[in-house]
Amino acid sequence: MMAYSSKSKKTGKKLVDETKDLFKTYSQKRETWANHAQEDKEFRLGKQWTSDQKRILEERGQAPLVVNRIHPAVEAAKALITANKPQFRVSPREDSDNQVAQAMNGLLEYVWQISEGNTMMRRVVDDYYVTGMGAALVYVDPMMDMGKGEVCIHDVDPLDIYIDPNSRHPFADDAENIIISRLYTKDQAKALYPMYEKAIKNASTESHQTDRPSTGREDDGEISFPEEPGTQTISNFGDSDEYIRGYERYYPLMIDYYRVFESFSGDEDLLDEKEYAQYLEQPAWVVNGNIITEAEQAKLLIQQLKQQYEQQLAQGRQEGNLELPEEPQIEQITFKDLLDNEMIDVVVVPTKRIKQCVIMGDKHLYSRILPIDKYPIVFFMNQHTRTPYPMSDVRMVKGMQEYINKTRSLIIAHATTSTNTKILIPSGSVDMREFEQKWAQPGVAIEVDFDQGQPTPVQPTPLPNELYSNEQTAKNDIDHQLGLYEMTMGNSAVAPHTYKATVSLDEFGQRKMKSKLADIEAGLNRLGMIAIPMMQQLYTTQKVFRLLQPNNSLNDYVVNKRLYDDKTQEIKVVNDITVGKYDVVVVTGSTLPTNRMAQLEMYMDAYEKGIIDKQEVLKKTEVFDMEGVMQRTDLIQQLQGQIQQATETIKAMQGDLQTREREIYHAKMKAEIEKTKSSLKGTENRAKMSGTLFEKRLDDALGQVKQEVAETSKQGSPSSSPKKKQS
Questions:
Q1: DSSP character at residue 388
Q2: CB-neighbour burial class of residue 471 (10 A; exposed 0-12, middle 13-18, buried 19+)
Q3: How far is residue 428 from each of residues 180, 274, 549, 688, 716, measured CA to CA in Å?
Q4: Count of other CB atoms within 10 angstroms of residue 478
């Protein structure tokens, strides 16, 4: 936590007197601007007539009407420029870790959430348009998070800020002092600074004489503003009827920082005076000529060396070796000894820092040096005039608003008089009492003496048409001054026929609004750059925080998480935000309203072209449970993949089945063929056997024939002639 230091009574009194003198001087210099700013605030809320103006109108028979065109114009412009919360992007400098930068980005978003940043930003932008200056303060609330403290941001009333009148920078970087001052009841002051209750109780009080300028504007609705005489509700409890002026004074000063470089380790660091003193007192160990700065590492190494020495000594005694082993050289020193031995180089670096002093009445409560070189008060200047006193848009349109009020009062007064017919009656022509009683009654006869003259109705002079058109022109001028056009106001009558033309025209109409946006984004960038070093100084221990996402889910983040490494036996810090340098930028146009239909159409086109997937398209829709839908979409995709895979498997199996069926068919056909072949072979064999048998039988028959022929031949010879004769 940031330290709060009190000064001696003598130093504190000098600081109080000096601060009061500066406050008086700055207050006198800004008086003219404050008068205008107060009047601008009153005009915005409808206090647009002075008492003299109202009296003159009433004498004329006109009502002091207020047709407030400024308020809706400011609200519309504010709604456009704060439609979305800003998107911060933290990037590391030099060799800083990207993962740590992401954690820092989450922590910055966390600070925005606990500070109710969206509401705060709307008030800042409101002041930007109305008074010409919006202001936000980055500070540490020591009471939050159970006394651990939190970095917070809140808006500041521009009329409570007193800037060095010689400043020329839009962020007042060249200002010698900036003072935030306002009146508190003592009970309010005690609630704001409970640790200084005794000092506040004994502080000097002052009568409630407001330093708010009086413009003389009146309002029938009895609108009151802070610190106006007679607007405070006085309680009979405590010290609430005692007023005390509080001062928060900020001013730059140069303090010495020490850049140390360790030649033995190669480490380099930048330390303030207190850190440098603690640094020199740190212990170190010289072990056998090596420098060790980690206590645990030194302890383990010394223990190992002593064990080795004792083992060598015992072994030498056992072996009868009279030569003693070399004893380890161990010496404990401090970093100051290393500095004296020129092993640490130190360079004194004068560095700019901002000092804060808090004063209540005539009591100096505390002072502290902030870890920043820019003022923690961030200004959002509208029309910067190279002075601490910018111009506002309301100030530029107050004349047109007064014209609208006067015109409308005249129109209504004319309409009122026109409905009551005026009649010129010659003297003595009618009984005036009877005439006044019966004139408004229907079907009434009134006796008239025409000899005395005839009553003549008087027709009122009609108002010119230019009067009505000029009022509309004045209204349009007010809107245009604030960067509002009919398209941006949602007037469908002036919209083109095509959707794309409408989107293009709407974007064209936002150009002036984007010029205003540049001022807002510059201030947001400055807020982020101031918040980071304050977070680095405050959040030095492990911190777990949660961020609410757009789909109402919670994401947990951890910074400065300490883990023990078993291998190196060292404690490592994960997401250490206390070291490193970072840059912060706000995504351009992130606070402007998004044309969801145009954006969705663009994403759908990209999806159809295969550039992005369905999830990216889904992120741009207005689905409440976006995460649930995405999970269900993933599940459906997984199931569809499984179904597709199963379908492909079935198709493959069907193909295999068809192949198998073909194989089986071919096997059956082959078997039938083989069967046929076997049958044919059998038939062939049988045929062959039959042919053989036939041949054999034929041979037998032929042989028999041959035998018979031979026998016959033998019988036909001479020796057998008698037989021949016999046959």
A1: S
A2: buried
A3: 75, 104, 86, 166, 203
A4: 23
